[in-house]
Amino acid sequence: MPYAVTVIFDLKPGTLDAFMPHILNNARCSVRDEPGCQQFDVCTDPAMPDTVFLYELYDDLAAFEAHQQMTHYKETGPKIADMVADKILKTYEKVDR
Questions:
Q1: What domains sit in the chain, N to C, each tagged with a CATH number?
Q2: Is-contact 88 13, C-beta < 8 A?
Q3: Alpha carbons 4 and 62: distance in angstroms, whole number
Q4: What one-character-per-residue DSSP string does 65-77 give?
Q5: Strand, coil or helix: what is 36?
Q6: What are the tens digits of pLDDT across the range 47-85?
Q7: Which of 1, 17, 21, 27 lies 20 to 30 Å (CA to CA) from residue 96?
């Protein structure tokens, strides 16, 4: 069952330029190296320069759990930790109607 993940990062003011290379690398590595990662979008809004929205789509919960064990994922957290003021992560399973 497809498994979607959304993350909203509220960044400390002025850290977007330093933050983006790390999160974009994580997204690229996830799609390239993880068979269960179908999509990993990094989104911004110029009107909200301190907010970054992620949309990730995995084959299932197991694929997301595997993502969290990947080296690129584990290395990203410490690199961005000092730039993040708040983080909201939500997960969703596809509902067939």
A1: 3-93 (3.30.70.100)
A2: no
A3: 12
A4: HHHTTSHHHHHHH
A5: coil
A6: 999 999 999 999 999 999 999 999 999 999 999 999 999
A7: 27
